[in-house]
């Protein structure tokens, strides 16, 4: 018996096939494959073929047993070393016409091969399915974000003057692993002092001073799903007035941004809420990135809360709200929560 969540995903694909008169759909992206089959291949290790009645996974023989266990509803077919050509042959053998492939997910070389052999370019169906999460995905996202929050609670009182950024990151990562995370959802950012002014800082060996800015941006993976959270604060007792000032502005932007993130609100409007608030305080040019992004199997996925997105928020979207102000050479503040878009507004997942 197929898991009802998996069933729903396959039903959506088959409805898409009917609507577009397609004989099947290829799924090449390994993240899309995890979404459908709850099994992590590496990149370019498999191609799925979903037809109106059946589902095939063309992959290397070594995966047959483990994948067969994870996804018994798919038929595993060993490839002959050239997966693209094997798929073309399989589709011919099955007599399928008009099989679609996702142009945004296919490599240039393989895409050309598919197009030459009569396959049809289609839009990213699975990308859009992945943008709204079902109850099972929400459960994993909740767990991953809760663990991120617990990690923050654990580490904050343990950060002492003289520790390096790397030491703090290592302790956070050990804590997450120990409490059930498979890995981090991206390279943990621990930044001290002037390093907090770099929004995409790479954790290094700088030591924490007695009076210093601290910024942590981190997350973990549980059951394949990511968390994302950022906290900033002043270590010591003599926070510069401007630090306290920008912290409050960013915190206010974070709160207003979360309030704005409702079903039916454009992602652009969520971004504008935070951006306008920060600009009105005179720090607009120091907010150098988008307000947020979707979070799921990938740490950055649709929808994006930024100035160019045309997406309108729906129930089941999981997005971050993460305004920041960065004063080069001095310090920066970013505050980030991951939220679920629900009928009763945005619910913060980065909490206990
Ligand atoms: Mn983020």
Could you please describe the fold and organization of this structure?
By secondary structure, the chain is α+β, with helices and mostly antiparallel strands. The chain has two domains: 4-130, Creatinase/prolidase N-terminal domain (Creatine Amidinohydrolase, Chain A, domain 1); 135-348, Creatine Amidinohydrolase. Helix content is 36%, strand content 23%. It is built from ten helices and 19 strands. The strands form six sheets. The chain has a six-stranded mixed β-sheet with strand order 4-3-2-1-5-6, sandwiched between helices. A three-stranded antiparallel β-sheet has the order 7-10-11. The longest helix is centred in the middle third of the chain and has 21 residues, at 135-155. Bound molecules: manganese (II) ion. The site of manganese (II) ion (MN) has 4 residues, from loops. Residues 228, 320, 322, 336 line the site of manganese (II) ion.
Keywords:
six-stranded mixed beta sheet, 10 helices, three-stranded antiparallel beta sheet, binds manganese (II) ion, about 350 residues, alpha+beta, Creatine Amidinohydrolase, Chain A, domain 1, 2 domains, Creatine Amidinohydrolase
């Amino acid at each position: 018996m197929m898991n009802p969540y998996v069933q729903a995903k396959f039903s959506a694909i088959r409805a898409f096939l009917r609507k577009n008169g397609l004989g099947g759909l290829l799924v090449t992206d390994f993240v899309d494959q995890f979404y459908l089959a709850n099994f992590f291949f590496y990149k370019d290790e498999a191609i799925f073929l979903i037809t109106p009645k059946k589902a095939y996974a063309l992959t290397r023989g070594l995966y047959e047993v483990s994948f067969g266990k994870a996804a018994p509803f798919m038929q595993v077919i060993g490839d002959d070393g050239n997966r693209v050509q094997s798929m073309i042959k399989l589709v011919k053998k099955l007599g399928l016409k008009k099989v679609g492939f996702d142009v945004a997910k296919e490599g240039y070389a393989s895409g050309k091969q598919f197009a030459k052999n009569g396959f049809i370019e289609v839009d990213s169906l699975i990308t859009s399915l992945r943008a709204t999460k079902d109850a099972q995905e929400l459960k994993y996202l909740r767990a991953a974000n809760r663990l991120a929050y617990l990690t923050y609670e654990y580490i904050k009182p343990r950060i002492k003057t003289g520790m390096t950024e790397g030491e703090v990151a290592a302790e956070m990562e050990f804590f997450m692993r120990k409490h059930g995370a498979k890995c981090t959802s991206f390279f943990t950012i621990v930044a001290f002092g002037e390093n907090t002014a770099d929004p995409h800082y790479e954790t290094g060996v700088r030591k924490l001073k007695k009076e210093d800015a601290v910024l942590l941006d981190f997350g973990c993976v549980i059951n394949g799903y990511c968390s994302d959270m950022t906290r900033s604060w002043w270590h010591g007792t003599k926070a510069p007035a401007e630090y306290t000032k920008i912290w409050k502005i960013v915190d206010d932007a974070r709160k207003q941004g979360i309030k704005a993130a409702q079903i039916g609100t454009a992602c652009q409007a969520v971004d504008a809420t935070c951006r306008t608030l920060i600009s009105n305080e005179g720090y607009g040019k120091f907010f150098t990135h988008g307000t947020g992004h979707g979070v799921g199997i990938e740490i950055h996925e649709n929808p994006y809360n930024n100035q160019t997105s045309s997406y309108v928020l729906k129930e089941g979207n999981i997005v971050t709200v993460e305004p920041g102000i960065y004063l080069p050479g001095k310090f920066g503040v970013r505050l980030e929560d991951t939220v679920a878009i629900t009928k009763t507004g945005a619910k913060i997942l980065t909490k206990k």
